[in-house]
Amino acid sequence: xxxxxxxxxxxxxxxxxxxxxxxxxxxxxxxxxxxxxxxxxxxxxxxxxxxxxxxxxxxxxxxxxxxxxxxxxxxxxxxxxxxxxxxxxxxxxxxxxxxxxxxxxxxxxxxxxxxxxxx
Length: 119
Known about the structure:
Layout: E1 3-7, E2 10-13, E3 18-25, E4 34-39, E5 46-51, E6 58-60, E7 68-73, E8 78-83, E9 92-99, E10 106-109, E11 113-118
Parallel strand pairs: 2-11
Antiparallel strand pairs: 1-3, 3-8, 4-5, 4-9, 5-6, 7-8, 9-10, 9-11
């Protein structure tokens, strides 16, 4: 059974920073690709960052590239999302997710954490 718990969300002014954490209770964390997604009101969920199994390879959406950093700590079963230079359009519920080895899709999700950026 996989359990993902996000933390670190909150209210921040534009230009500020937040660090999200996602703690995973699951099998060997190092066997899994992980990602951070977000969903703003009235919009579809979108992926913002992903990390390879080892954490050595990362990818970002164009909207956050250069401002957000994903990092994966396999020893702690935790993935982080450092968010800098936040903008009001970054306001959303942020979710971490683990990609299923069997299906290749993100099949395990946390409950989400709210990030609100005020202008």
